[in-house]
Amino acid sequence: MTRRATVLLVVLAGLALVGPWLAPYDAGRAFRGFVHAPPMIPRPSRGLGVYPLVLEDRVAQRFVEDRTRTLGLPWREQEEPVFLLGADRDGRDVLSRTLSGARLSIGVGLVSVLGATLLGSLLGAWAASRGGWWDEAVMRSADFLLVLPVIYVVLVLRAMLPLVLAPSSVFALMAVIFTAVGWPFVARGVRALVAREREREYVLAARSLGAGPWRILWRHLLPACAGHVTVQASLLLPAFILAEATLSYVGLGFPDPLPSWGRMLADAGNVNNLAHFPWTLVPAGAIFLVTFATNAALQARGEDRIRFPEQEVASS
Amino acid sequence: MLTFCLRRALMATLLVLGVASGALVLTRLAPGDGVGEGRLLDPVERAAERARLGLDRPLAEQYVRWLAGTVRLDFGESVLYSRPVSDMVGERALNTAILAVAALALATLLGIPLGIYTGTHPSGAGAAVVRGASTFLLSLPPLVGSLVLLLVATRTGWLASGGMTSVGGAATWVAWVRDVLAHLPVPALALALPLGATLERLQSQALAEAVREPFVHATRARGVPARQVLARHAWPASLGPVLAVYGVMIGSLFSGSFVVEVVTAWPGLGRLMFDALRARDLYLVAGTAAAGAACLAAGTLAADLVHARLDPRVRERRRP
Questions:
Q1: How many other β-carbons are positioned within 10 Å of the β-carbon of residue A260?
Q2: Residue spans of chain B under pLDDT 70
Q3: How far is Cα B122 from Cα A170, in angstroms, rounded to an integer?
Q4: What are phi and psi of B77, to 5 degrees?
Q5: Which of A49, A54, A113, B229 is 20 to 30 A from B191 (CA-CA)?
Q6: Are B20 and B289 in contact (CB under 8 A)?
Q7: What SS3 class is residue A254?
Q8: Pick from A67, A19, A56: which is nearest to A34 by CA?
Q9: Which residue of chain B is at minimal alpha-carbon distance from A163?
Q10: Cα–Cα–Cα angle for B175, B181, B186, nearest 5°?
Q11: pLDDT tens digits for B120-131?
Q12: From CA A84, how far away is CA A74, in angstroms rounded?
């Protein structure tokens, strides 16, 4: 289970990295005359070519296919644009935006996961080895954060700062906020594991060989928590991606020209748009796929795991 | 049992107070104060309004005043709407409660029976279908789910989409209830489907484990009919992990309900808190946070009490 979770994290990181390169067009490029153009479907009979679209009714934004000609797939240089997943309200390619958005949406999630696992492991291990009052303080605050609905904590922390920020600040800010709400999920389990493992013989052996507390923690105790931390990390990733989407959806995340998945959904979520241009919901599909992949990766053969991180912590 | 209740009540009070204070202080630290939002005020009027609302005081003094008011159940006045916070929070909390209770009931009614079915017929075709559907729905967060359901509703016209009531309002009580019921399915389903899938999976695993227990075999061996063994012995024994997850679910119900309220324009507490946060409406933020925390604490407490009533081991265990 741990191995599959690791593979998943690496694959998603790769996707965030190469996503924008796979996009056929620049994410911000608006094609005039193709506002809300519907998806163009590759026809196997035409060598996977697509029929070009002709605007029939500008007011209703209705397009018809020109069946006399075919265009190649959008990665090829050609006169007219090809929208495999349709175009949005500015005539921007939804496929390109979704692929480019992977970098922002998955990127923010991965950076936050890294932060949350690091902070959580350190605080959990520290609480377990320090014990006493510190242990109590760290774990009580972790419990307090775990009780609260995550999205509200994120909202209050985000709303504390100026509502309009530069994109790079938004990225950093989201990562910090998600780290701040995500660490308890890791810390609880790490604390329990470290508290159990440090009573084991191999730790005693290391200590009697003269290893210092930091060496024992780093070489022996934290590796013992690796499995738990990996599982938590892959549970937190879809949660953070969703949190980004929610923040951007309500207008507290990435600002407009940026193609984050939540930002794209904010345009799609309007009831009028939704009924007529359902292809703008593609980013929702992307979020679903990431969540689904995580659930599938964490589902060991024969037994199914349930998604609540609290349960994961409790059972490890 | 009494100490258990008292301890939990104390924890709940601390939670409500902590959350509301935290929200108040954090919002106060944010730039802007929401005075004059939506209307033009000259500097003198602005200063007078700030003084009337106590916004010109230092943070500590303002906090103590607010706390003193809160004890007397006076939560202050909304800067944005110029209405007492308690009135606004009350009506919105009711709307959220309607949504949350409907979603929880739907999730239970869908998840538990299906879980019992798949837990007792693990190798059938029907169980495979249910299991597949659950795995699918588990990955459908409320944001995605509500958008998809909204799409279905607008395309087909089967379900009312957007808002809690139709434009124009209803003339009578009965008409209002019918109107709300017509608008309820989209948001309630968006919330309930992933939760129902969770319950189905949990119930299925727990029951599959329970029927393998020796006491179930012993009861069968004594000649008790299979149906009765299931209803009286195996199922109650499997309820532990299922009930335990209800306490956790209340939290995700709240998180999910914010998203669903925003997407489907359901006028609930989450939406109100969001508007208040954006407008830096200090007392309204604190009031909604307090109400939310109170609902959360009440929900968790109710879940725990039911759980403790059915499982004596829980009563003694220390809970966060």
A1: 32
A2: 1, 32-41, 53-56, 166-170, 311-320
A3: 48
A4: -120, 140
A5: A113
A6: yes
A7: coil
A8: A56
A9: B278
A10: 145
A11: 887 778 888 888
A12: 8
Q: How many CB atoms lie within 10 A of CB B46?
A: 14
| Block residue for tokens 């588990």 | B138
ipTM above 0.90, yes or no: no
Q: What is the token pair recorded at A280?
A: 């703008």
Of A23, A200, A149, A147, the residue nearest A95 (C-alpha): A23
Record: contact A288-B135, CB cut-off 8 A? no
- Count Cα atoms within 13 angstroms, Cβ side, for B307: 23
DSSP class of residue A211 equals -
Report the 10 Å Cβ neighbour count for A62.
12
CB-closest option in B148, B161, B258 to A151? B258
- Domains of chain B: residue spans and CATH: 95-158+187-279+302-317 (1.10.3720.10)
Quick check: B180 and B165 in contact, CB under 8 A? yes
CA B11-B15-B16 angle, to 5 degrees, is 120
A249–B150: do the CB atoms touch at under 8 Å? Answer: no
Residue A260 to residues A88, A167, A168, A290, B147, Cα–Cα distance (Å): 14, 11, 13, 15, 17
β-sheet bridge partners, residue A207: none
Q: B112 forms bridges with which residues in the sheet?
A: none
d(CA B40, CA B46): 9
Q: Please write the tens of the pLDDT for every residue from A230-288.
A: 888 888 888 888 888 888 888 887 877 788 888 888 877 777 777 777 877 888 888 88
Please name the member of A146, A246, A271 whose beta carbon is closest to the beta carbon of B150.
A271
What is chain B's percent helix, strand, coil content, to nearest 5?
A: 75, 0, 25
User: Mean per-residue pLDDT for A64-83?
Assistant: 72
Residue A268: helix, strand or coil by DSSP? helix
Take residue A109 and report the two structure tokens written for it.
């999630």
State how far the Cα of B150 lies from the Cα of A294, in Å rounded to an integer: 25
Domains of chain A: 40-82 (no CATH), 94-315 (1.10.3720.10)
User: Any CB–CB contact under 8 A between A7 and chain B?
Assistant: no
